[in-house]
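A favour, since you know our structure tokens better than I do. Would you make up a two-line entry for one protein for me to read? Write everything out right here, beneath this request.
=====
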Amino acid sequence: MTKKEIPTVAGKNRIVRRIIDALVERDSFLLLGHKDPDTDCIASLVAFALLLNKLNKEITIFLAAPVMPQFSYLLAICKYNGIGISYGTLGAPASYSTVVILDTPKPDMIALNGDIAALLAAPGVLKIEIDHHLASDAQYAGDGDYCLVSQASSTCELIGYLILKMSKQGERFKGTDFFTRNLVLAVLTGIVGDSQMGRYLKTRKERFYYKLIGNIFNKRLVEKTLKGSKNLSTMEAVFDVIRNFSVQEKHCYDGIMKLKNSASSIHYICLDEGQSAELFKTYGAELIVNVSKAAADSLAEDCKKLGMVAYYDDPALSGFVQFRLRRSAYYLHTDLRELLAGLKVENGGGHPGAVGFRYKREEIKDIRSFTADIVGRIEALVESAGR
């Protein structure tokens, strides 16, 4: 079923109450995100795990593979709090009564293995979903009454909303501090990472809730961090860490940025099959995903409108050619999801300021002419909209 905005505040609150009841009543939780997890996905997994930890639940985070170095502080928080992380395999999957699916647009994007697929299909296993993707191809993966799917800057913002609701139930959670430094830090990481410190937000509602929840959690982080310590203490400091590149990332980034092409409304990079294969061989899939997003961001800011990177996936991972499209902070009046609709893209989605889409390899005979055609169509759409 296609994801839709929860129509009323009362309906949203009913779903929140059901999720809170499940968190209290159930004991064992498996947390899942999407393939090639980004900042908001990793932060959502950690934030939700820390929330469950406060309720003394059994928790496991599943990741298909190790994540990038800039997220190490989040995984260190899990280790410090005794939260288990499984990479690629999962012991005794039948022991989990509840699966929480976070920041994942549709079921076929969930990072899982055969055991987890069987668990998701098993009767009696509750599937909670929290997500902010509302693109045209977004599909529910959770059980209907337990899907907190709503427009927001990030999935972490929705987790922050859930935490605020729980913190107001003083009698039920008496003595529980929901605003410990590590939990606040995880929530803020997702909020600033996915929205790029709010610059990807378009609607008044998105900006309102970003500022409301972001400011509440930022204030808590400042309060909870010892003065004079080297620990992250503000939203800005968190954002700086997320943006910091490793040596390998910078080398990869600098290399592909040399391939920049320019059109009036979009700057773009097109990597052919050979160039893509060499990058995957040298750097690995996860680094390529992160760097391609960062490159698209830089191209957009340089153009002052749009930036795009196209590359072939490693055939061992998928049979797709990937396109990453970003919007500049100077170009807020265009919703990239509307551009995808105008391009008649059937496999793609994302946020107002950042989207991804893909085509099967066999659909593309010449990647350069194919990309040039997409660029031309984007230019026409931008021109027709008078933007």
The chain has two domains: 9-242, 247-384. The radius of gyration is 21 Å. DSSP finds 13 helices and twelve strands in the chain.
